[in-house]
């Protein structure tokens, strides 16, 4: 009976170093590849370029691979305990990199059945991180970008979205990262907000700003970033206009549009009931959603219904009723909005919505109830958190301080400490180096 060999693999970028490890593993016996799922990977790294099934198809057809099974955990240990292989094989670079702790755990587990770990010398001249960075400079395609949001929702407990209103702010969102004990934290995508887009241009946030004008800023972001984009569609206008919006956004690779159940002249939700917003009826709102769903070409694009009942002074139950109707009309997700700083109406809404719909995504914009963490929102049943205007809000006071300091000092020396070096800014821009 042949010996069993286990190899944990991401399988997103296959390079000669990976092929070498596979070849060495196959020499030891029947090589079983534990292919990490999207959810296992995104807990610590970026979402793979290829889906799990695409990666499985590639790895299954590599000579020397006898079998491919899912690895649902970032650690190899759960699969090792299930399979109890005679050998585990891995590149020796994990002795000193971020996998060093898991390496020790693997050695301890393999001892339980006298298994052996074989470490293959790192292949010189191959740098996986550099390969990923090079791939990022190539960019993405509308089809790949559009599909990414649904993959992230399926893979992560919370999808983290940050507002971007320009190409430069989009690049900051694209590259911002913090390494924490539980892995790498990044933003998963961008929110194209009508409020921040118009405000950054010094114009009022009114729906009279048409899609053609908004597309100028959106194109700036699309051209220099790769992460998925959720588009703020305001009310979506009349159904015939919304159909055009859906087709335009989908064609350009936008992942989702969010439309609210209002009609008439737009007033920002921050002004609440004093603005005397007129809400669309269930029939009017659902007609628009259904028209948009009929218009889209791909299964990847999402239409998310933004429910404004709570903002307008209605009850959570009335908001739930409108949300249920939107889902029946074809909405792919629900955004629920509130100005209540306690967040308890949002928590109640999530609980009642989840009692009926277990998997329809819930989107929250916790600008006012921002004392809660993403983990707490996940416990409520939320899937997507949008930080809706923070890039613009943080930029304005910094620019104002810079301008006033120069006026006061009559020179720019004093603002050097609050200004990013121009070289560092240019390094964000693809093709500048």
Short description:
Helix content is 43%, strand content 18%. It is built from 17 helices and 17 strands.
Number of strands: 17
Q: Number of DSSP helices?
A: 17
Q: Spatial order of the strands in the main sheet?
A: 6-9-10-11-14-15-16-17
User: What is the alpha-carbon Rg in Å?
Assistant: 25 Å
> Which structural category fits the helices and strands?
alpha/beta
Helix percentage: 40-55%
Describe the 3D structure.
Helix content is 43%, strand content 18%. The chain has helices spanning 16-28, 38-42, 52-60, 77-83, 100-110, 128-138, 142-155, 167-175, 194-200, 211-224, 239-252, 282-295, 316-328, 344-356, 374-380, 390-409, 422-428; strands spanning 4-9, 30-36, 65-71, 87-91, 116-120, 159-163, 177-180, 183-186, 189-192, 229-232, 256-260, 262-263, 278-279, 302-307, 333-336, 362-364, 384-387. An 8-stranded parallel β-barrel has the order 6-9-10-11-14-15-16-17, surrounded by 8 helices. The longest helix has 20 residues, at 390-409. The model has no long low-confidence stretch (mean pLDDT 90).
What's the arrangement of secondary structure elements?
Blueprint: E1 4-9, H1 16-28, E2 30-36, H2 38-42, H3 52-60, E3 65-71, H4 77-83, E4 87-91, H5 100-110, E5 116-120, H6 128-138, H7 142-155, E6 159-163, H8 167-175, E7 177-180, E8 183-186, E9 189-192, H9 194-200, H10 211-224, E10 229-232, H11 239-252, E11 256-260, E12 262-263, E13 278-279, H12 282-295, E14 302-307, H13 316-328, E15 333-336, H14 344-356, E16 362-364, H15 374-380, E17 384-387, H16 390-409, H17 422-428
Parallel strand pairs: 1-2, 1-4, 2-3, 4-5, 6-9, 6-17, 9-10, 10-11, 11-14, 14-15, 15-16, 16-17
Antiparallel strand pairs: 7-8, 12-13
